[in-house]
Design brief:
Chain A is an all-beta fold. Helix content of chain A is 0%, strand content 60%. In chain A, strands 2, 4, 5, 6, 9, 10 and 11 form a seven-stranded mixed beta sheet that branches. The model of chain B has no long low-confidence stretch (mean pLDDT 91). Classes of the chains: A mainly beta, B mainly beta.
Chain lengths: 112, 114
């Protein structure tokens, strides 16, 4: 009955590979997000997705692409992984203008 | 660009004492939120205060907001060992945290000594 679930929890992969992280929310929220948390714990928004409207943070490389098959899912695809992509990636959801965000438990990505 | 700046970066107190963390931000906001992150876990929403509110309480938490100074504080009273975590403030712009998301500060790492 997890509210926001993301898989996998850990992902270790080689440079140059392509990988995906899945996210699902069962809260009926209308907006989903991807955040990146670096080694200093700084959280930065990567994408938000609301009613088929995608807002992209301009600093995110185009190797990163979100894909939303439906309102409850927002997956993150990463092409040609680089060492600097190593971080913890969090999926979150919210009902706009109400309450706060609900976060997933994170995916720790390590690129070697 | 980074919006919130928490102060202090780290705080260590004895169990039972009160802990106060501060947050400053730069632009106009719709609301400000505080989150807790335990080590290796996701963030948990604690409390939201709207721009037209000055103070809000939730259990042992008290949040204040001063929009003229662009600052907020989080007070945890009667701290417990389980309160050990990192605490982040996050601001929501005009969309209320919707399309443009939340902007997080760097966080305060709180350690409660037993």
């Amino acid at each position: 009955d997890t509210a926001v679930s993301q898989t996998p929890k850990y992902l270790v992969t080689q440079m140059g590979n392509d990988k995906s992280i899945k996210c699902e929310q069962n809260l009926g929220h209308d907006t989903m997000y991807w955040y990146k948390q670096d080694s200093k714990k700084f959280l930065k928004i990567m994408f938000s997705y609301n009613n088929k409207e995608l807002i992209i943070n301009e600093t995110v490389p185009n190797r990163f692409s979100p894909k939303s098959p439906d309102k409850a899912h927002l997956n993150l695809h990463i092409n040609s992984l680089e060492l600097g992509d190593s971080a913890v990636y969090f999926c979150a959801s919210s009902q706009v203008r109400r309450y706060g965000y609900t976060f997933g438990s994170g995916t720790r990505l390590t690129v070697v | 660009s980074q919006q919130g700046e928490e102060d202090p970066q780290a705080l260590s107190i004895q169990e039972g004492e009160n802990a106060t963390m501060n947050c400053s931000y730069k632009t106009s906001i719709n609301n400000l939120q505080w989150y807790r992150q335990n080590s290796g876990r996701g963030l948990v929403h604690l409390i939201l205060i709207r721009s037209n509110e000055r103070e809000k309480h939730s259990g042992r938490l008290r949040v204040t907001l001063d929009t003229s100074k662009k600052s907020s504080s989080l007070l945890i009273t009667a701290s417990r060992a389980a309160d050990t975590a990192s605490y982040f403030c996050a601001t929501a712009g005009r969309s209320g945290g919707g399309a443009d998301g939340l902007t997080f500060g760097k966080g305060t790492h709180l350690i409660i000594q037993p």
